Amino acid sequence: MTDGHDAIRDFLDRTAKGKGGQGKKMVLNPQTGKFELVSADKVSAGDVAEITVEDMRSF
Amino acid sequence: MPVWKPYQQLRLAQEQQSLRRLLPDFTFHSPQVDTYVSGWWTSNSDRRYQIRVNLPPGYPDAIPDTYVTYPSPLRGWDRPIEQWGNSHAMHTWQTDRPGWAKICIVRPEDWSAAFSVVKVLRKAMLWTTAYECHLDDGRPIKDFLL
Hints:
The structure holds two protein chains of two kinds.
Chain A: H1 5-16, E1 24-28, E2 35-39, E3 50-51, H2 53-56
Antiparallel strand pairs in A: 1-2, 1-3
Chain B: H1 6-22, E1 26-29, E2 36-42, E3 48-54, E4 65-70, E5 92-93, E6 101-103, H2 117-137
Antiparallel strand pairs in B: 1-2, 2-3, 3-4, 4-6, 5-6
């Protein structure tokens, strides 16, 4: 299920403050084209869908 | 009119394949000169945006220009986003296309040929998501993306 704006906002806010993702990672679902928060242990290293912390902290 | 050199043509062909596979709603236009990539993205708030990436003659060694071209103008909390000009707080550049918000997706000195169009577009989607956070209460985009 696609995460709503509030959940994504909270995730970005926490990441920007260096608070960590509370066991979650953000991915761009290739089927829906939307961002989703998934359990970190379900995202494999190098997964092309993952939005990394570096992606969020390099603007 | 500069045209793409052979090594650039190979790179662009690879990027087109990646784009078709990973972001099929985006397409390459004008493949010989003044090449750009554009497409529509629907955010997690179900708002529709059009994003455009202009590839400079020096691509991939030169950084592309990235715009949100729809809605136009892109409204902000208290003023259109393009009125922020060069802004660290909003991760924007002074636009050279009136009506289009020119966004910064990476610091120019951090750009390298390791970046791809797919990466640029995904970061533009991130910027757009943070922009929607800005619309909630006026907090700057830098509060959500560093």
